[in-house]
């Protein structure tokens, strides 16, 4: 919310008296965002931020009412996912590229406002391959990776072997996540390496424990992942134009369960991925076609 407010909202509305912000002013702001190429989802998020400020002002008797807002029709544009072969290629490329310097664009340097963060972290880390495996087999969001500490992880061994992730609440979901077996192996191997580096406390972060500024971690990982995609020859966009980023690893995890997870029901999958059945159908299952599950369609009752 703070990022949205200070990136666009405050620069545009900051000099206005709050009681003068009405339907026309908000509509002009929406038109500006549209001309700049913002997606309808992004515009809607900015409107939510503005409405929160105005609602707070109304609750404190600073304005007589919250004005009517222009309606924005949301166009669903789910991210793309990776195929099994692409996923394996990304992991192998990440392993081969450890220590490789990543070209950092001038625009990125400028964005850092002179901070040496981009220069200091512009190389492929040894744990990127573990990160890719972990995300595809744990259903977590990149923001979960940023916050994941050892105290949030429990290894369960029994009839099934998996990790139980008791992560901090995200997007109003706080239930534990259970993982696939490859995530267990990735976690154990990475933990052994980090133990040699002295990161063994329950409050140490699982990924990049040395990075104290966790806000910048995802940007750092984003540079690495995009570079690995380029080296591997795996396009940022799919054949049908859907964008792929680090977040696409979560889409890949859910898609793989829909394709290869037997007769898994959407409710179980949605709860474990900390989302809703509606979101799975709208954003994650939207990339699937009937032909991908031709075996289920043609299977006969016994």
Describe this structure as you would to a colleague.
It contains 14 helices and 3 strands. The chain is globular, with a radius of gyration of 22 Å. A hairpin with a 5-residue loop joins β1 and β2. A 3-stranded antiparallel sheet has the order 1-2-3, covered by helices on one side. It is mostly helical and 302 residues long. The model has no long low-confidence stretch (mean pLDDT 84).
The oligomeric state of the chains shown is: single chain
Which residues form runs of ≥5 with pLDDT under 50?
Answer: none
Report mean pLDDT, rounded to a whole number: 84
Using the alpha-carbon principal axes, give the shape: globular
Distance between the termini: 54 Å
Strand content: under 5%
Q: Number of helix segments?
A: 14
Approximately how much helix is present in the residues?
Answer: 40-55%
Order of helices and strands: HHHHHHHHEEEHHHHHH
Radius of gyration: 22 Å
* Largest sheet properties: 3 strands, antiparallel
Q: Taking strands numbered 1, 2, ... along the chain, how are they ordered across the largest sheet?
A: 1-2-3
The number of strands is 3
By secondary-structure content and strand pairing, the structural class works out as mainly alpha
């Amino acid at each position: 919310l703070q990022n949205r407010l200070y990136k666009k909202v405050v620069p545009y509305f900051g000099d206005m008296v709050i009681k003068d912000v009405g339907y026309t002013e908000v509509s002009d702001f929406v038109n500006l965002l549209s001309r700049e190429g913002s997606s309808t989802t992004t515009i809607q998020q900015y409107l939510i931020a503005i409405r929160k400020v105005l609602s707070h002002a109304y609750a404190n008797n600073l304005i007589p009412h919250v004005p009517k807002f222009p309606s924005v029709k949301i166009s669903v544009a789910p991210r793309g996912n990776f195929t099994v072969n692409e996923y394996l290629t990304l992991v192998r490329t990440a392993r081969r590229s450890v220590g490789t310097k990543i070209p950092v664009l001038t625009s990125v340097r400028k964005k850092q406002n002179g901070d040496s963060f981009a220069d200091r972290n512009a190389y492929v880390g040894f744990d990127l391959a573990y990160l890719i495996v972990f995300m595809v087999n744990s259903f977590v969001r990149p923001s979960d990776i940023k916050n994941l500490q050892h105290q949030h992880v429990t290894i369960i061994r029994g009839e099934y072997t998996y990790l139980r992730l008791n992560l901090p609440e995200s997007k109003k979901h706080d239930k534990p996540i259970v993982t696939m077996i490859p995530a267990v192996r990735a976690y154990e191997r990475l933990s052994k390496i980090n133990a040699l580096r002295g990161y063994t406390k329950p409050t140490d972060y699982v990924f990049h424990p040395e990075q104290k500024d966790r806000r910048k971690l995802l940007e750092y990982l984003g540079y690495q992942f995009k570079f690995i995609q380029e080296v591997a020859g795996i396009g940022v966009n799919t054949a049908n134009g859907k964008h792929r980023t680090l977040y696409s690893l979560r889409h890949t995890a859910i898609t793989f369960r829909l394709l290869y997870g037997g007769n898994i029901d959407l409710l179980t999958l949605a709860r474990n991925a900390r989302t809703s059945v509606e979101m799975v159908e709208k954003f994650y299952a939207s990339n699937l076609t009937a032909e991908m599950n031709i075996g289920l369609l043609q299977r006969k009752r016994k």
